[in-house]
Every structure is written in C-alpha cells, then in structure tokens.
Fold each of these.
Amino acid sequence: MQFQPTEDQKAFRETAKRFATEKLASSYQERASGHTFDRALIKQMGALGLIGADLPEEFGGLGESSVTSGLIVEEIAYADFNASYVQLLGSLMGGMVAQHASKEIASEWVPKVVSGEAVIGLGLTEPRGGSDAANLILKAEKSGNGWRLNGEKTSMSFASQADAAVVFARTGDPDAGARGVSAFFVDLNQEGIKRTHFDDIGTKPVGRGSVFFDDVFVPAENMMAEQDRAFGTIMAGFDYSRALIGLECLGAAQASVDETWAYVQEREAFGAPLVQYQGVSFPLPEA
Ligand SMILES: Cc1cc2nc3c(=O)[nH]c(=O)nc-3n(C[C@H](O)[C@H](O)[C@H](O)COP(=O)(O)OP(=O)(O)OC[C@H]3O[C@@H](n4cnc5c(N)ncnc54)[C@H](O)[C@@H]3O)c2cc1C
C-alpha cells in the first residue's frame, strides 16, 4: 500500500497552497463577515482544478482520487476555512449528481460545478432536527409529469447563493422513516422558492440558511435514484464528505498552531519571549 502522495497529488497540493497563500490568506478577514462567497474566487478555484478534482472525467472532472481532493481541502482551509467548503461541497454534490441524477442533468451541471460556474447545495436538514435526518417531512406530491414540493429545508450551506440543490422529500408513508424518502434535483432560481441566511457566529460566507418551497414544480426526470429509496442509496456517499470536513478542520487548526508559534517567539513578557516559558512552549509541540 502506498502512503506517499503521488507526483500528481504533490502538484495539486502545491497549486492549492499557492492559490491559498496568494489569493485567500490576506483577504480572509475581509470576506469573513459577508454572507455570500465571492463568485470570482470560486471561478478561479475552478480554473485551477481545485473544485471536485475527484469527479469523473466524463462530467468535466479530473478523475483524481478522493485523496487528492482531501489534500486540496486541507491546503485551502489553512488559509480560508470558508473557501474549503467550496471544494467540499463541489466534491460531495458533484459526485451525488454524477452518480444519481439523469445523464442530461449530470452533463449540464457537474461541469459547471467543476469550473466554479455553479454551486449545488444539499437540502436535507429540516427545522425539527438534523441528526434524525430520515424523519423528514418536506412533501413531494405527484402533479402531472412531475412533483410539487412544499415545506422547509434549513441549515443549508450556500442557501442564498446556490444555483440548484439536491432536495430530499417525503414521497411515501410519513411513518416509514428512510423508506418513503426520494431526492430531487431542483433549480433554486424559480417561482415558489424563498431563501434566508442565518447570522452565524463563524463561517458566515458559507451562508447557512433556510429554503422555503411553496408548490415548487419539479419535472419527473429530476428525481434522483429510486423513488422512496433515495435516502439509503444517496446517503451512502456521505461518509466521504465527513472525512473532508475533518481535513478542513485540520487545515484551519494547523494555521492556528503556526500563527501561535510565530506569536510566542515575538511577544515578550517578564523580559523574555513567551516561547521561553515552559507553560507555553511545552503544550505547543503536542498541538
Ligand atoms: C456549518 C454547517 C453546514 C451545514 N450544511 C448543511 C447543508 O448544506 N445541508 C443540510 O441539509 N444540512 C446542513 N447542516 C446541518 C447539519 O447536517 C445538522 O446541523 C446536523 O445534522 C445536526 O442537526 P441539528 O443541528 O438539527 O441538531 P439536532 O439533530 O437537533 O441535535 C441536537 C443535539 O442533540 C444531539 N443528539 C441528536 N441525536 C442524538 C442521539 N440519538 N443520541 C445522543 N445525542 C443526540 C446532537 O449531538 C446535538 O448535540 C449544516 C450544519 C452546519 C453546522
């Protein structure tokens, strides 16, 4: 088994590091108070191959491994935690659409995710609670050659900015839990959709918020996976995103440790730099 990064992975990591250092780090604070993420930066990330590198080449991806996407996420998060969400969501949602949406939808949308032209959100969590995700109540009812969605999704990343979303809805028995849940690819720029954003204490540009669906029509061909069985099928891919979230946190934590090392060498107290005091310098190598 090979534990060292390949030459390609080293190149991706280097590109991500350079972009993070030159384009993200110094302007991070400026962006951190906004509720949307700068689209121009998303496109720049796309142009450099820093979004959804692991997505299939058939849909504009680079066909790299998930390890490559993890390396990119970690480097980007070192400079801007919020920007790393763009790559995380690109891999997660791009992968979901490539695997479970119709060929037409995947061919139209996945390349746009990879290039940074489009952001696809995830509409799973509802106000009654997110952990018990399968017990969702947002309803999809048959209507002509499609479905009508009514209800609310909340806590959605990029809620006010996403161009489309994969929305999980109840199509079957309300008491059937995960069985009875279907997934739809929904264009978010259409009548009947209202969006808000939360005033989160951190990660503001990720723009977590609610999306309200009032009789929103979704064509039948936008259903993903199998009717009433989408939850189990699609959620199986979620574990990968959890690993990416871990790497995001690792990148940001490493930046904090590095900044602390620099600071304690520079800051003096009682006639010496803080780093010379064991109460400060002993815990730091363990971090
Ligand atoms: C930054 C961020 C981005 C997000 N982006 C998205 C997104 O794009 N799309 C989306 O759909 N959702 C998103 N979410 C929502 C996320 O998936 C939910 O926050 C998560 O599922 C938890 O749900 P909840 O916040 O409603 O907490 P709850 O489910 O209400 O849980 C509250 C507390 O109860 C505890 N708890 C719950 N169940 C149990 C149990 N069985 N045993 C013991 N303790 C339990 C939990 O650990 C927690 O401490 C995002 C959340 C965050 C913070």
Amino acid sequence: MTTSRAVPRVLRSDDPEAAHLLEAGATLVSESWGARLTVDKDVLARCRAAVGAATAAGWSVGPVGSDGATDVVDLDLSAAADYPRTAATAHDPPEPGALAAALAGGTRWAFGAWAAGRLDAVTVLTDAGDRVETDFTVTRASARRRGLATAVKGAAVLSLAADGHARFGTGGAAVNAGSRRANEALGYVVVERWLHLVP
Ligand SMILES: CC(C)(COP(=O)(O)OP(=O)(O)OC[C@H]1O[C@@H](n2cnc3c(N)ncnc32)[C@H](O)[C@@H]1OP(=O)(O)O)[C@@H](O)C(=O)NCCC(=O)NCCS
C-alpha cells in the first residue's frame, strides 16, 4: 500500500524505469533538475550585468573570506525553513568551523552581497573536479526578488572563470522557481530532470 511516508525513488526522467513505474500507477511526488553552464563571452556579460545591477541598487558584491563563515551560516539558518525539501534536494546548513576551513583552504568558495555591512545573499560552491558545483545559494527573506541570488552567482562565475574554471553545475527542486530563474538568467541550461516517484 502507498503511504505518505513511503520513500520515493529518484529516477532520471529519461530512465525507462521511470516510465514503467508511472505506467504502473506510481505517484510523482516532486521533481528536481540539474543544470550546467559553460563560460563564454555572453555568460560573462550576463554575470557582469547582474553584479552591476545589484551594485547600482546599493549592495556590495564580492568574495566571502573564511572570517565570514559565521555570517554565511547565520544567514543560511535564518532561511532554513524556506528550502524546498524533496527526495533529492534536502539542505543542511554547514558547520561554521568546517566552512571557514574550506574557504581558507580553497576547497570551497563563497560570494556574497552586503548592504550596510549585513550579508544579505550568498552562494557557496565546491570544486567537483570536472566543474564547479553550487552547494547552496540563499538570500535573506527581506531582500528577495531584487536580483541578489543572480548577482552572487554571477560574481562567482566571474571570479572563478578568471582563475580558469570554465564549467559550472547546479541544481534544485522543480518547485523552486526563483533558484531556477536565477541560474537561467546567467546561462545555466537544464540538462537533466529527476522524477521522485512513489511506486
Ligand atoms: C531561491 C532564492 C535564493 C532566490 O533568491 P533571490 O535573491 O530572491 O533571487 P533573484 O532576485 O536573483 O531572482 C532571480 C529570478 O527568480 C525570480 N524569482 C525569485 N523568487 C521567485 C519566486 N519565489 N517565484 C518565482 N520567481 C522568483 C525573480 O523574479 C528573478 O526572475 P527574473 O530574472 O526573471 O526577474 C531565495 O528565494 C532563497 O533564499 N530561498 C531559500 C533558499 C533556497 O531555496 N535556495 C536555493 C536552493 S540552493
């Protein structure tokens, strides 16, 4: 019997098993997506425009050093309830000491937007080998829909591209329209969809 507590199976939308399960009556409980960006001059122009718009609106945008790890975690905790939780997109705030060490050691990067000294948005990224992958992006609730997620993501691409990184990856829950639009505004292209199916 299917119950609300059943654990969904996460399958790519083009996996024949997904079609098979749907035909057999499985319930689609949620969806997620993965996107990729390859740096080119158009992408860089979009990133510059996003950073410029946030700067013109009064935020300063730039890298977050290891001494900013606590601010990142505090901001992330303030928005913990706003992350859509699906079978494939749960998010746990980082531990401040571990984040500070990763930022200091260069294994993770963070880019933020500040107004009056307060961190209002941040994106945190990790080197995933063949690409730089976004770990999470968050904007303070009171500062949303002003282009800040787009700006900090744009700042990340600009800075890391200047250091030679050419491929970026990200993803999220289908219900998170803001996250997807921020990425697409910069040139991320959705390359995979995942179906969360309860048989
Ligand atoms: C998702 C999130 C980071 C977006 O931050 P933001 O600073 O408001 O995003 P932006 O202002 O850059 O908006 C980007 C685009 O998404 C749109 N958008 C933002 N929030 C939206 C929403 N709730 N519904 C529909 N569209 C939305 C904006 O209008 C903008 O579109 P446009 O370029 O066509 O104008 C923010 O809502 C948030 O912190 N959510 C909680 C944490 C989370 O879910 N993070 C993402 C997963 S890692």
